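Q: What changes when alpha-D-glucopyranose is included in the input?
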Amino acid sequence: MSDTFVPTKTDPGAAEAARTDDAWWRDAVVYQIYPRSFADGDGDGMGDFAGITSKVPYLSRLGVDAVWISPFYVSPQRDAGYDVADYVDVDPRFGTLADVDAFIAVAHAAGIRVIVDLVPNHSSSAHPWFQAALASAPGSRERARYMFRRGSGPDASLPPNNWHSVFGGPAWEPVGDGDWYLHLFDPSQPDFDWSDPEVAEMFDDVLRFWLDRGVDGFRVDVAHSLVKAEGLPDNTVMRDIQGAGGDRGPMWDQDGVHEIYRHWRRLLDEYTPPRILVAEAWVHPADRMARYVRADEMHQAFNFPYMLSGWSGQALRETIDESLAANHAVDATTTWVQSNHDVVRHATRFGQADPTRWVNGIGPDDPQPDQELGLRRARAIALLTLALPGSAYIYQGEELGLPDHTTLPADVRQDPTFIRTGGAEIGRDGCRVPLPWRADAPAFGFNETGASWLPQPAVFGELAADVQEDDPASTLSLYRAALRLRHERGLGRAALEWNESPAAVLDADLGDVRMIVNTGSEPVALPSDARVLLASVPDAVAEGRLAGDAAVWLDLRG
Ligand code: GLC
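A: The predicted holo structure follows.
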């Protein structure tokens, strides 16, 4: 690696400068913390705020601008916290409100902004409002806050319509008195009825509660599902994977959702410095998704088409062009994301026999990916993701090159997808395994006790943060160097200009950096005067050529 200088953001002057930049989010690098699996301070096997706060120096050294923390609210954890029973308190598993305040203060002092998760489509069935709805009669005020409907058939014994849950099985659950309630996800996640004013008012209060505590923004869970088509017609599209297929069923991407986000934007705009909204919206095509980030709505939306492109130069280039154009048309920034807590980590996806194949989960009976090749490609795509104009998201452990745990036994799996489909869908546990911090410690340093809510694979020992810390060739060193250069060279803000290249190669100038990514397996010639700033792997460049499955940043400064 050409450069291993490591940035620090702990100097208060730098932190202050960062916090006064109102458009910080347009090119921010945001690190996703999945609190169950990041770091465990109390040793109970599940991560917590004590653990998160202890790792701020690590995040600072990595050089990220912000963190997004998946839900840590009071929850029965039927869907790993995306089933919220109290939106304005912390689940004791993760700590207390005071712990959150302390974390926000420490993060801010290090110049790191804090985005929290907001889950407005549904609550937990343990939420007091849903419990009150169950205890009340059909047609009551208490039931109006959720999507209760009378069943079909002469004795209301059939669901009101044909919708399916994203997690498998019907999307309706009977409550025993002729009414059924809608749950697009698990039965423990009843959908709110957003046409009820009390629901909207409650969420205004939730937003203010966290904004007043100093959070810098919200990632909005399933932002495209809050409003359902009038009359809840049968789904004739039958694409239930959150609309990912492009066609939209009557539960996804209805025009009414935009009114909600315009309202929230006005609320956020009362705060200084500016706070942001990030949409999790599995919406196609790109111009439909761009509607979520119009000037008076959200600030960003996750670019899932980029994630779905696979390890293919051509598909990546097409997606990059389409998403930049669609967002440019509404003057929004584009985001770049390859992994999160819902998908197979890209180091694993890219190690499949076909690295363009999308897969919802990998289990012990499936063909096992080539970890070495997957990691090599993951390191190369990092130099694409972190160079492109806009904002980049890193999923915890990606900077260590972690793969999914692909051989988790059935009896430890906790994802409701696995449970509701009887194992037909493997689910998302493989990407949610607790992080390895120290190779020679219990639970690889996730805590001091060795407890871990999901078992870790042996390979996490080789990839532990302490092993990579001082190794200039490690994935962690690559990410640190890339983030430092990104900052220095204004990547993220620089316009992209493609250079002519074969289909397997992505070759572009971004200001005074030239990025070349070779998704093919054969080496390609580099410009004769190439000066390498950063290379994805130590053997990326040899004899004036860029190796297969490798990437470089070149210096164009005169
Ligand atoms: C989002 C979350 C996912 C969760 C679902 C239901 O897609 O990212 O983890 O299961 O919403 O809340």
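Observations recorded in class: The longest strand covers residues 113-118.
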